[in-house]
Write a structure and sequence with these properties.
The chain has about 300 residues and is α/β, with parallel strands linked by helices. It has 3 domains: about 55 residues, Nucleic acid-binding proteins (OB fold (Dihydrolipoamide Acetyltransferase, E2P)); about 170 residues, P-loop containing nucleotide triphosphate hydrolases (Rossmann fold), CATH 3.40.50.300; about 60 residues, Probable gtpase engc, domain 3 (Ribonucleotide Reductase Protein R1, domain 1). The protein is about 25% helix and about 25% strand. It has 9 helices and 14 strands. The strands form 3 sheets. It has a 7-stranded mixed β-sheet with strand order 11-10-9-8-12-14-13, with helices on both faces. A 5-stranded mixed beta barrel has the order 1-2-3-5-4. Strands 6-7 form a two-stranded antiparallel sheet. The longest helix has 16 residues. It is globular, with a radius of gyration of 21 Å.
C-alpha cells in the first residue's frame, strides 16, 4: 500500500496527494471508512484511480454535531483561524462554540476580526472581544479587502502578509460563518487558489466551486505550511462534547472551578461554587463576565438535555 494525504473531499470521492506531489482521485473501501481533509491514508492503485484501505491514527479531528448529523471539518490540525467580521456583527455564542470545539481537540485557536476598515463597527466589535484577549486568546484585526491602505497601520490590525507569518510551519483551518471573508482571504494568501479549486472541482465532477467542500492549499513550495478552506456555517452543534468537561474548556471558568466545594460541581446551583462566586463585572480582574457565564449555563442545559 502507498501513503497519501487527503487534500479535498466531495461525497464519497476525494483527492489524495502522494509524497511526490502528484494527485489522484480515490474512493474509500466500504461505507464505514470516512475520510476527511488532512487524513494520512494508505491506498492501493485501481486503474487510473485509487482505493483507500486505511486511515492512519489522527492527532485530532475538528467537527460539529447536532441531533441530526455530524459535519467534519479536517483532521491533524495545528491551529484554527476563526474568522469573524465587524459587519454584520458576529454572534458571540457562535464564536464560543468554535473555541470550545478547538479546546476539546487541543487545537490552537486564532481569532481574526475582519473589516478593520469599517472604523466604528470594528471598534465596537473589537471591544466585544476584550474578554477573549483577557483569557489569553490571540485576537487579530484584519482588513482582507481594505477600502483604505492606511488601515494596515491601525494598531492591532495585521496585513495578510503578517498573518502568513503566523501560519508558517503549521497546518491551519480557516473556520467561520458564511460571509466573513474566508474566500477573499484565501485568494490573498494563496495565489492561484481559484484555479486550483477549479481543477479539483472538475476532477471530482463537482462543477462550479461554491466552497461546499473542504480543500487543502500549500502556502509554500516546501509543503511545510498548509491552509485549509472549509464551508461557512451558521450553526455549530456541540452535542458530542462531555458537559462535565465544559468548564475545563473555558479559560475564564477553569481556574475558578478548582475552588468549588464539591468535586462534581456543575457550576449551576451548588453552594460553595467557585465559578458562581467569580461571576461579576467584566472590568474586575479575574472575574467571569455575566454574559460568558450565561453562555456556559445555556450550553450545559443544551448538552445535558440531549443526554436525558
Amino acid at each position: 500500500m502507498q501513503t497519501g494525504l487527503v487534500v479535498s473531499t466531495h461525497g464519497r470521492h476525494c483527492v489524495v496527494e502522494t509524497p511526490a506531489g502528484g494527485r489522484l482521485i480515490c474512493h474509500p473501501r466500504g461505507k464505514k471508512l470516512t475520510v476527511v481533509v488532512g487524513d494520512r491514508i494508505r491506498w492501493l492503485p485501481s486503474q487510473d484511480e485509487g482505493v483507500i484501505e486505511r486511515i492512519e491514527e489522527r492527532r485530532n479531528l475538528l467537527y460539529r454535531q447536532d441531533e441530526v448529523r455530524t459535519k467534519s471539518f479536517a483532521a491533524n490540525l495545528d491551529q484554527a483561524l476563526i474568522l469573524i467580521a465587524a459587519q454584520p456583527e458576529f454572534w458571540e455564542r457562535q464564536l464560543a462554540r468554535a473555541l470550545l470545539a478547538c479546546e476539546a481537540e487541543d487545537i490552537q485557536p486564532l481569532i481574526a476580526l475582519n473589516k478593520a476598515d469599517l472604523t466604528e463597527p470594528f471598534a465596537r466589535a473589537w471591544a466585544r472581544l476584550a474578554p477573549y484577549r483577557a483569557m489569553g486568546y490571540t485576537v487579530l484585526g484584519l482588513a482582507v479587502k481594505p477600502r483604505e491602505e492606511k488601515t494596515a497601520e491601525t494598531p492591532g490590525v495585521e496585513t495578510p502578509d503578517a498573518l502568513a507569518c503566523r501560519l508558517h510551519g503549521h497546518t491551519t483551518l480557516i473556520l467561520g460563518p458564511s460571509g466573513a471573508g474566508k474566500s477573499t482571504l484565501i485568494n490573498r494568501l494563496v495565489p492561484g487558489a481559484r484555479a486550483q479549486t477549479g481543477d479539483l472541482s472538475q476532477s471530482l465532477g463537482a462543477g462550479r466551486h461554491t466552497t461546499t467542500h473542504t480543500t487543502w492549499y500549500w502556502l509554500d513550495s516546501q509543503r511545510q505550511s498548509a491552509l485549509i478552506d472549509s464551508p461557512g456555517f451558521q450553526e455549530f452543534g456541540l452535542s458530542h462534547l462531555d458537559p462535565a468537561q465544559l468548564a475545563a474548556w473555558m479559560p475564564d471558568l477553569k481556574p475558578h472551578a478548582a475552588g468549588c466545594r464539591f468535586y462534581n460541581c456543575t457550576h449551576l446551583h451548588e453552594p460553595g461554587c467557585g465559578v458562581i462566586s467569580a461571576v461579576g463585572e467584566a472590568a474586575e480582574t479575574g472575574s467571569i463576565s455575566p454574559h460568558r457565564y450565561k453562555i456556559y449555563r445555556d450550553l450545559m442545559q443544551e448538552l445535558t438535555a440531549g443526554r436525558a
